[in-house]
Amino acid sequence: MAVDWWTTGWLVLVALGLLWRYLTWGYGFWRRLGVPHPAPSVPFGNVADVMLARRHFSEVADDIYRQMEGQPFCGFYRVRQPVLMLRDPELVRTIMIRDFASFHDNFFHVNEELDPILARNPFFMKGEPWKMSTGGMLTGPISFPFLLHVAMDDAQHTYQSCKMMDGVEAQRICMRYTTDVVTTCALGIKGGALEDQKSEMLEMFNLILEPNTNSSIRFMITGAFPRLASLIRLRILPVEVHNFLYDVVSRTVAKRQHEGIYRNDYLQMLVDLKTKGYLDGSGQELAIFTDLDITAQVMTFIADGIHTSSTGMSYLLYELARHPDVQQRLRRELQEALHKHGGQLTYDVINDATYLDMVITEALRLHTPFSPMEKLCTAPYNLTMPSGKTVTIPAGTVVILPTSSIHTDPQYYPNPRAFDPERFSPDNKDPHGHMAFLAFGAGPRSCIGQRFALSQLKMGVATIVLHSELRPSARTPKAIRVNPKGLLRLCRDGLWLNFQPLHH
Ligand code: HEM
């Protein structure tokens, strides 16, 4: 059959035109609304480096944040999806607190049928189910003396392993520490992460928590193309992790129920809930509380509690190694508090350590573990431009809160790249700095593990600083490059430090 080159040429041109139309479809969204935005390019909009796994989303968002200086908000495109970025911390707080009713959902999408454990995590829940969720229980049952006991034990192990090695990777040490604290508090069983570096528990958590190409692709597809993800039945939690967790939890629950074992931990509270159908003192009855619900609660603790805290803790150790004066002052404060309270590292010692509070807050500001936050606008919302013009953001728009960019904006934190705990001293009344601190979010959906996180961070850091001196090693990075894979802002090159045992 003779080839009609003329017709073929036209068909190719039409196909290319349609493809171009598809790829650029929607790129007029911000222009039509009159919202300032950087020019998008085909095919990735403004996030090519994220899609090609060259940079972390927070770094690309930071470029846009700086490019749009002077604007309280701006738009950009994630591939073809229009995304609104709020640049003004006051506006951020307004939508997280006062106008929460229009922004109560996080953007991330999880398919309940495919990922029943993750779908029960309050972070991924939306609308009514979120309001009815039992996530608030997380902070309830953990008594400080119990945490203290575990943390002391584990921090001692951390110290021992540090003593044995010259130059250790702080992210790994801290991850093993928080894994042990969290698994002991959540499940009442030791993960053995510190003692046995190949603990099965740690390996399983690494499959979901460690940045890797597999999980970042799963997250990216479910985030950017939720319908496609459902169509190809893409799950976020690997099936082996689901089975492992479900198996560990249901076996432990059965053992406790059959043998009448009682422990003062989070799992016990969940077992009681399953047995009685209500939570003491809550006056609230639960319909059905299954082993899957219990696994999901435990998983929430693990997924949201281990890596966030270990990331914050490792960056703090890194800054202490680079700032011997700050480290020395912190050690002196802790030694004095120890002396005052009879030589035992207790809740009172930690409570008396104001400077410890300041250094932790400063580390979380400078190296915010989780950023940006992503919310969904659930009802049309009016925003006012600097010109006085009002624009209406339609329901369904994704809204980005670039916490790490706000935290390093000289407008709110002068000399923002410097590690300076004085910013958070009780005498420092700088209204901008404190208002702009958003490491745990704000409002009804802020981090429910904040108290727990700070407690485990304080115990871990205090024990290390009291027993060893932190110093930079030849491999300590001078500047931080964020690992492009994964949700959290981990250091790509590793936080290598030396731990020198102190002789008392
Ligand atoms: C330094 C450690 C931590 C940091 C920096 C951190 C940060 C955050 C942030 C920024 C959010 C989102 C807030 C928002 O959207 O407004 C969040 C939510 C959450 N965090 Fe944390 N977190 C930490 C530790 C923990 C721990 C230890 C747990 C559990 C034990 C936990 C459990 C949660 C949960 C369940 C949510 C979802 C709350 C909801 O949407 O209702 N976090 N966290």
From TrEMBL:
Instruction: Name the coenzymes or cofactors required.
Output: heme
GO molecular function terms listed in the Swiss-Prot or TrEMBL record: heme binding; iron ion binding; monooxygenase activity; oxidoreductase activity, acting on paired donors, with incorporation or reduction of molecular oxygen
Instruction: Indicate the principal place this protein occupies in or around the cell.
Output: endoplasmic reticulum
- The portions of this protein that span the membrane are 6-23
User: What positions does the entry give for heme binding?
Assistant: 447
Query: What does the protein in this record do?
Result: May be involved in the metabolism of insect hormones and in the breakdown of synthetic insecticides.
Q: What is this protein called?
A: Cytochrome P450 6a2
